[in-house]
Every structure is written in structure tokens, then in C-alpha cells.
Amino acid sequence: MKNKSMKIRSLAVCMALASIFLASCASMQKTESDSLVESSIKNSYVFKTFLQDENITVSSRDGNVTLVGTVTDESEKLLAQNTAESVAGVRNVENRLEVEGGSPAKGSDAWLGAKVKASLLMNRAVSGLNTEVFVRDGVVTIRGQAENNAQKELATEYARDVEGVKNVINEMTVAGIASPSQPSATLSQSVDDASITAQVKLALATHRSTSALATEVDTNNGIVTVSGTADNQAEKDLVTKLVADVNGVKAVNNQMSVAAPALFIKER
User: Fold this and answer.
1) Burial of 95 (C-beta count, 10 Å sphere; 0-12/13-18/19+)
2) What are phi and psi of 140, to 5 degrees?
3) How confident is the model over 179-234, as pLDDT tens digits?
4) Do the Cβ atoms of 59 and 170 come closer than 8 Å?
5) DSSP letter at 142?
6) Do the domain assignments include residue 14?
7) Which of 91, 93, 218, 241 is deepest in the core (most CB within 10 A)?
């Protein structure tokens, strides 16, 4: 009887130790997974290119990511969140980032300037990082250096399409060197899928022609799939163009459906 009792106690101890060991392993796996999530976000193209000078701390616990710190404008705050949400293993993102000086009022000159700057940053053919944007009473002035006239005209086009912009004055100088309209393979390959997805979402949200569309964006090895509903074929084609212009995009698979035209019944 005594031996039986000792065996039962030994079995109970072994089971308890096994439970502790399994719990420890599970905890370790979660920690490793969270470390991978944090590393993927911090080392993403967006964080290393557009947000490298910002004060952002990234932490993950069981796939729940928290972003803390300060950014220059509202667009960078959204870009950081979009990137984190697009990283594999992320379940939720709590965005505690604060905009330096506070978030500008929608439609204000500061708000428009941030939107225009973000629009230029997302476009592979425009040197958005080296372009200065000034806004006064809804009139946007762009300064910097374009590599050719086509790039300069494209910068004007993208700035003009931002909701709220009344006019664009393009004072960019033309350097007269080779066109960057076809980016090198190195650039395309260096942009991770999460960063591409984040840029595409921001690009579509920035342009007045596509900002109201409810679109889903997914990226796999640089190939972007867009789904949702467009009001017409021209709108769907514009989405394809805007997505194709984003840094790192290799191809666009536009699966958006076109809404059926409204039927008007003539009254007798």
C-alpha cells in the first residue's frame, strides 16, 4: 500500500514537472515569436527608409503590437500602423504614436502638406525624400530636383490629386539624367511585402479619386492583389496605376469588381 502511495506521488510530481516544462516551452515560443515580430517591423523597408529618423518603440506580446513614440506627421503615424498590421504573426496593433506639435486639422495647410509629402514618398518615380512641400491657402508649392521633365510632371499630378489641394506650383529643377521610371531589380527585391502593403494602403487613401474606396490589399513576393468595388472601370484602372507606381511593387492583380450602373426609369 505504501509503495502504491509513493508511486502515485511520484507520478503526480512528474506530471507537475511536465506541465511546468511545457508551459515554459510555450512561454519561450511566444517570446521568440514576439521577438521575430518586433524585428520584422523594425527592419521593414518602411521603418528603415521613411521612419528611420523618428522616435518609435515597437513591442509585441502574444502578437499584440504596441507602437510608442513621436512622428513628424499623421501620414507617418498611419504608415507605421499599416506596416505593423501587415507583418506575419501580428494580431492587433495599438498605435500610441503622437504627432509632433499635435495632429493638424483636416483640410488645413499643414494637413495638406503632410498628405502631399506622403503621396510623393509612395511613388517610385518621384524623389519624395528630397522634395520640399509648402502649402498656403490650399496652394501647394513643390521644390527640389527632378531627374527629368516626366518626373516633374508626375510630381505635379500626384500633388494635384490630393483631396483639398486647390493648385500646384512646381518649382522643381530638372537634373537631366536617366529616367528612374523603371526601378532597378535591387530596389524592388529589397522592399518587404508588409512595407509594400502599407505603402499601397496609404497611396490609395491619399488620392482623392480612390480615398473613399473600400479596398483590401494583400502582397505576396511583391505581387499586390487588390479587391473591393469600384464605381466604374476608369476608377478600377486608376487603382491599378497607383498601385503599380508604389515602391517595390512587381505586379498588380486587380480583382476589384465594377459596380453595376444605376438604372433610371423615365417617368411617363
Assistant:
1) middle
2) -95, 130
3) 444 444 344 447 999 999 999 999 898 888 888 788 999 999 999 999 999 989 99
4) no
5) E
6) no
7) 93
Whether 138 is in a domain gets the answer yes
CATH of the domain at 70: 3.30.1340
Q: What is the pLDDT of residue 2?
A: 52
Domain match, 143 and 79 both = no
Exposure letters 162-177 (e unless 16+ CB within 10 A, then b):
bbbbeebebebeeeee
Per-residue pLDDT tens for 123-152?
Answer: 877 766 678 899 999 999 999 888 888 888
Cβ atoms of 91 and 105 within 8 Å: the answer is: no
- The answer to whether residue 74 sits within a structural domain is yes
**pLDDT tens column, 68-109:** 999 988 888 999 999 999 999 999 999 999 998 888 888 899
**106: amino acid identity, one letter:** K
